[in-house]
């Protein structure tokens, strides 16, 4: 197997490659993410003081509530924020998800399941197709919510390393696929139900009988998933592959040598994989059967399946899933020989993400302060008001909307939070221009997705930096931005062009959801 070449360089690197190298060097000169977020917290505190002193306030769409920018640089503000610090960290969403999922993933990983699966599945796959495979997997995995990052990023590393390519590049492809292409998921995810519900509420301010369904973008997102996976593959092979030598892990020499001599899975491992596969199917079959009764505890109180305890707490079921397959595979191969191996594997897995948990403490305080000050709400509402006042032609308005929401998304990286802020303005505004709410929702998906992978404000961005640093200590924000920027920009351009063609042809966005 070919190993990652840690010494290869482009004798005359293309201009764009030099530009990306400059971005990486500049970005990596930034402070460690832990300190960067404390600096951002201080900047936010100062900005909140200035904005509050100016009496800035905004009317929250939908509720009509007047919100003023609040400052933490006052006796009352400081007192309130200090009382929140512990809760900010403990209730920080990614903290619980990462920790819980890792308990199960650690057992499956240290039992050898992931490595054997990757070697078996990719034994005859050329390295070029690995990019496409990981990209498609990322687009399809968004129904797992934030758990997708915990599962697929390490798998992307294993898949790339198995075929002799940089495991860091595998992580980056997985990240950008979930983060940017995930909203092109052909499957119906819990987020789709939330998006549709908020769009329905916004649409009913204009038409009381309006209904937006989770399936209203299904046709568009299904085609988009394939198109975006191809875009990711093209950019990675034509642009990022030129810089793959800069993504060699710290232990590249030892790792590559080990990969070169590692034998293919033997009969015992193959048999264990097959039986583990049956166990995996059995696990999900039991979950499906348990969900069938109308009053199942896995369903919501009204019988809904999408917005239900099953999907709302999918991390619990995924952690148990990986624990089961890890135990089955480990017992069949002998890598799990005693009961004490399981907690030992779990503890080892948590140790591997300890640096990430430290970063999460700083991130959680910044995110909480940014939300508490109402700065994000103020910027989002003012931006939406500016779009409403443009009075531009429809397609031009679409392009401006995509650009504006993409910019706002650099600040407010939670897709549902930003949609909750802008939908009450954008959906009614565009309905008055005879534009279907499903079309507005599709435009939002495009704008919301692509810039998630280039902003350090995103918790999943910092999560990925933490994963990169487990393989290469010098990897930083600049490393990730320099690799995700060309992919994100290409996806934004191609996805926007796809929508324009879709609009001009008048193809329905989903069942019963005309594009215009």
Automatic annotation (TrEMBL):
Keywords: Membrane, Transmembrane, Transmembrane helix. InterPro entries: AbgT. The chain crosses the membrane at residues 35-56, 89-107, 127-144, 218-236, 275-293, 313-332, 353-370, 390-411, 418-436, 442-468, 480-505. It comes from the Bacteria. GO terms for molecular function: secondary active p-aminobenzoyl-glutamate transmembrane transporter activity. Pfam families: ABG_transport. The keyword Aminoacyl-tRNA synthetase does not apply. One of its GO terms (biological process) is p-aminobenzoyl-glutamate transmembrane transport. This is AbgT family transporter.
